[in-house]
Write a structure and sequence with these properties.
This protein has four helices and no strands. The protein is mainly α. The chain has a domain of 58 residues. Helix 2 packs across helix 4. It starts with a helix and ends in a 25-residue tail after the last helix.
């Protein structure tokens, strides 16, 4: 048995991948794909209702819908006071007035 075979098959050299970051990247890619289909300028692409699949528990369409609901709620509620900062001291972007990729 030589040193290279010990290094290849030994227990000390297991590669550990950061699974949370890989999972997060997969989710970002899936959400981008859903948004690309939903916000396409081509009516056939938006009307095709392409289902983006990732797994059993997490669905990209549900995540996009939840984000839209949170943004609409933020527009309805408006600016709120956070901590000791007064109204108008924090700059907020208004998503209801955004156009295109803004």
């Amino acid at each position: 048995m030589n040193i290279s075979s010990i290094a290849l098959y030994g227990n000390s050299c297991k590669l550990r991948l950061p699974l949370k970051s890989v999972e997060e990247e997969l989710k970002v890619v899936q959400v981008r794909e859903v948004l690309q289909y939903q916000e396409s300028l081509d009516s056939k692409v938006t009307g095709a209702r392409v289902a983006v699949r990732m797994g059993r528990k997490w669905r990209a369409e549900v995540a996009v819908e939840g984000a839209d609901v949170r943004l609409c709620h933020k527009v309805l509620v408006g600016a709120v006071v956070k901590g000791r900062a007064g109204l108008g001291s924090l700059k907020t972007s208004q998503f209801d007035k955004a156009q295109g990729r803004e």
